[in-house]
Design brief:
This is DUF2007 domain-containing protein. With 110 residues, the chain is of the alpha+beta class. It has a domain at 48-106: VC0802-like. The protein has helices spanning 12-32, 63-75, 98-106, and strands at 55-58, 80-85, 88-93. The protein has a 3-stranded antiparallel β-sheet.
Length: 110
Amino acid sequence: MSVPWGGYHYLFGPVVALAVVAVLALLLRWGFSSGSSLVQRRPSRGREGEYGLLEVVAAPPGPAEAEVLRGRLEDAGIRATLVPTTDGPRLMVFPEDAPRARQLLRGPTG
C-alpha cells in the first residue's frame, strides 16, 4: 500500500490551515486598507462654493428649518439638496432652478 505524499501526509492539515489564514489575512488587509474600502466615508464639510454647479438659494438657521424649506421646493418639483457647509446648512439647487426656487422661498408677494 502506497502512502500519499511519501510519508509527509501529516503536513497536509497544517499546510491547508496556513493557506486559509493567509488568504483571510490578505482579504482583511485589502478590506481595511485606507483609500480602497467599499464602505462609504463620511462626507467632509466644505464652503458654499465647493459644490460644483449647485447654487445657494437659502441659508436657514438650523437643519430642521432647512428640511422644511427643502420639502417646499421638492413639492414644487424643484430638485434641492441640503448641504452641511462650514458656515451652516445651505439649501442648494441647479442654476436653472435658482430664480424659481428663490421666488418660491420668498413666499407669495402682493
